[in-house]
Amino acid sequence: MAAYCLQGPYMWSLYRVQYGLPERLVALLFVTGFVSEGVASPLVGAWADQYGRRKLCLAFCVISTFTCILTFLPNLPTLILGRLCGGISAAILYTAFEPWLVSSASSMGQSSEDLSTIISHATLVNGFVASGAGIISNKLVATTIDFTSPLVVSGFLLVLGFFVILKTWSENYGDGGRSTATVLSQTGRLRQAWRIVCEDPALLTVGLTQTCFEGSMYFFAFIWVPSLQEVSRLNDLLPLGYIFASFMVSITTGSILYNTIVVRSKIKGTYSSLTFHAKFSSVICAVSALTFAICVASSYEDWRYLAFLVFEICVGMYFPVQGMLRGMLISKDYQATVVSLFRLPLMHAPFYLAYPRS
């Protein structure tokens, strides 16, 4: 997570300021990464279930390191290739790691309450790590006056993460894992996952919620820097690393809020837990929509920044809530495949970024 977040705060500034690319090309690069992620997600999910989630997590470290290397080369074809690789690595990050965790917890006989605690704590730790990554990236850029400097540290952490996963993680699979599979069998697996979704209205609702909410996260990833800069009262470049760190603190706050609410609610039984998390998810989506409405309506820097912070708090609550819903509704044999299936529609959302802003 630290390696991934180190790449985030200054990527827009790297393309726009240091490399001098026009905003349309910057948007194109972001779109390339998002589309790559959307296309790769279903295949990555099927491969994770089929060939092993640990293997895909190792592949994430390798591909992300390659992405960092390509980003150092300031020519458009190489940058596009880097964004393609970045999209694939992001697809792995969001479709292989959580199913590995859920399957491992299930294999160890953990209850749904224990799983909820594990996921919320993981989100909490990720928030602290990401906050630290934002601060470090800000310090690195301020010291080196080079937007590529966080990528060096990111590459080092990815290599370290590769060996940690290699030495300490056990492998787990979905239904039919360990077998050799053709592209046709992977397509059949996706069709089977879609049938599972269609037969369960609750699961379909959870999937559509994932598509809509994570689509808004895609837009946010591109717009937060230019949106704050256009209303900024500062003449110099904003301290993007610190702002990013504050976003990550907000995600951590959201995770803490989720954990506190769950503990105080004293949920008992799978059905009660399912109902509670479904209602919780609805509230998160409503509040998130309100934050974007405030951002659009207000031209004040403070209000936009505050709205973004609240949105990130919602993100911090969204991941454990959504993780619990998926853990209760999706069989572990098809979990990565079903999760990735609903990431496919996300590839269409980023095309709106390529349109010039008025």
TrEMBL record:
Any one cellular-component term (Gene Ontology): plasma membrane
Keywords in alphabetical order: Cell membrane, Ion transport, Membrane, Transmembrane, Transmembrane helix, Transport
Entry's transmembrane regions: 25-44, 56-73, 79-97, 118-136, 148-166, 202-225, 237-259, 280-300, 306-325
Annotated GO biological process: monoatomic ion transport
Topology term for the membrane: Multi-pass membrane protein
Localization per record: Cell membrane
Keyword Zinc applies: no
Keyword Metal-binding belongs to the record: no
GO molecular function term, any single one: molybdate ion transmembrane transporter activity
InterPro entries xref list: MFS_trans_sf (IPR036259), MOT2/MFSD5 (IPR008509)
Principal location listed in the UniProt entry: membrane
Its job: Mediates high-affinity intracellular uptake of the rare oligo-element molybdenum.
PANTHER family noted in UniProt: MOLYBDATE-ANION TRANSPORTER, SAM (S-ADENOSYL METHIONINE) TRANSPORTER
This protein's name: Molybdate-anion transporter
